[in-house]
Amino acid sequence: MPLSIDVNADLGEGLGDFRARHDEVLLDLVSSANIACGFHAGDATTMVATVRAAKLRGVTIGAHPSYPDLPGFGRRELGLSPKEISRHVVYQIRALREVCGAEGAKLSYVKPHGALYNRGARDRDAATAIVAAIRDVEASLTLLGPAGSEMDHAAARAGMAFATEAFVDRAYKPDGTLVPRDQPDAVIHDVKGAVQRAVMLVKGQTITADDGSELRITAQSLCVHGDNPDASSILRALNLRLKESGVTIAPFAA
Questions:
Q1: Residue 254 resides in a domain
Q2: Gap between the Cα atoms of 117 and 144, Å rounded
Q3: Residues 6 or more apart whose Cβ sits within 8 Å of residue 17
């Protein structure tokens, strides 16, 4: 049986019609779309447009909730309490679920964005709040995040489905965390290098850290950031390379 892997991208991160064409290009190259819910980017118009475009292409839809941080694109650590995190996540998931319902589309999973994702990966209380928020809206949704993270553990405690992911276009530190974006080479733009990392993840469950060491990472989904200016080039090359390698691109969630 051939190997199968999901490929996801963060989409709907414009305002109004801005980035709509860019997102449609990426939607032709992924199997899952993490759609911004308005707190770090996006608005009602982008959510509707992105859901419609994803549904048209048969791309699985996920909510991409964030800290309420439009000025910082959701990448600043705001230090919110677990109760505040839960409220904000519930609000965002419900907003996208309502759009999906109106468009006859299905919401399948949740992937936190930016600083909230990073905090949920390391902070037990934040991870528990994220899982509780998902359960409050729809317990059947899958949570997408790093293998072995606090989100992984919180989902297991709650009996929630959890899917693992790794980042093709982000550098890793030896401890398995991401190199902060304010450091050199944190975001990978080299198409050949990004694709090779993806193949290593699929075939051998390994990735090279920034110090040259090899990390073992289990991933059901590979992420390419939609705001990476080289995203479309990376995804096109990745699709071709995976096909040549006998790997099928398919969503991790129904």
A1: no
A2: 10
A3: 45, 49
DSSP, collapsed to helix, strand or coil, labels residue 11 as strand
CA dist 88 → 35, 44, 115, 213, 251 (Å): 15, 16, 14, 38, 26
pLDDT at 36 over 70: yes
Shortest CA distance to 118 belongs to which of 163, 79, 156, 92?
79
Please tell me the predicted confidence (pLDDT) of residue 1: 40
Pairwise CA distance, residues 128 & 52, whole Å: 31
pLDDT, position 254:
67
Q: Measure Cα distances from 111 to 92, 120, 204 in Å.
A: 11, 10, 24
Residue type, 15: L
Mention every residue, 6+ apart, whose C-beta is less than 8 A from residue 184: none
d(CA 211, CA 223): 22
What would the pLDDT profile of 194-216 be if each residue is shown by its tens digit?
999 999 999 899 999 999 999 99
Let me know if residue 106 belongs to a domain: yes
For the chain, the domain total comes to 1
Amino acid 6: pLDDT = 97
**192 CB-contact burial (10 Å; exposed 0-12 / middle 13-18 / buried 19+):** exposed
Say if residue 2's pLDDT is above 60. no
Q: Which domain holds residue 77?
A: 4-249
Q: Flag whether 178 is in a domain.
A: yes
CATH of the domain at 203: 3.20.20.370
pLDDT digits (tens, 9 = 90+) for 122-171: 999 999 999 999 999 999 999 999 999 999 999 999 999 999 999 999 99
